[in-house]
Specification:
five-stranded mixed β-sheet; globular; about 35% helix; Rossmann fold; alpha/beta; single chain; about 170 residues
Length: about 170
């Protein structure tokens, strides 16, 4: 069975920014019930350069984050190594993190995907908005299905992941 890493990131104290960690925590709560020993889950406020070490030994990585710019409940995209424009090692994008992986390990990174979930309210101290709560339910279903599929499949190819995403959107 291929090893799958799920990284949900965002600030739980900032309303809809909690979406990524909430999906990750949901999957973590199901791991022992579903016997998903091949799946590991991490949560973070933001991606940092140190997270490059977390990607080692995984065949597939699913990043999960809230996004205020998408028009559907969620959107799945394939990550590609791309050097970021930032001068800081904090708040990296998944693509920038993959570029660091290539620099450090001198090899291609694992297959990585970013699940963006539509969020609307990001102010400090706000709860999840009602529409983000529905998006959370939909994304949990989608990620659960990905985890179930990962038991049977060595890896998803890009076409399969995108078709699966469309089926649940």
């Amino acid at each position: 069975m291929a090893k799958l890493l799920i990284i949900g990131y965002g600030n739980p104290a900032r309303g809809d920014d909690a979406l990524g960690p909430l999906v990750a925590e949901h999957i973590e709560s199901l791991k022992s019930l579903r016997h998903w020993q091949h799946i590991d889950v991490l949560t973070a406020y933001q991606l940092q350069i140190e997270n490059v070490m977390d990607l080692v030994d995984y065949q597939t990585v699913l990043f999960i984050d809230a996004d205020s710019q998408i028009n559907s409940p969620y959107l799945l995209t394939r990550c590609q190594p791309e050097v970021g424009q930032s001068y800081t090692s904090h708040a990296l994008t998944p693509d920038a993190l993959l570029a660091v992986y290539q620099q450090v390990y001198k090899t291609a990174p694992p297959a990585c995907y970013l699940l963006k979930m539509a969020g609307y309210a990001f102010e400090l101290g706000q709860p999840l908005s009602s529409i983000a709560t529905e998006n959370l339910r939909l994304a949990k279903d989608f990620v659960e299905h990905c985890c179930q599929r990962s038991e049977q499949s060595v890896l998803f190819d890009d076409r399969e992941m995108m078709e699966l995403s469309a089926a649940y959107a």
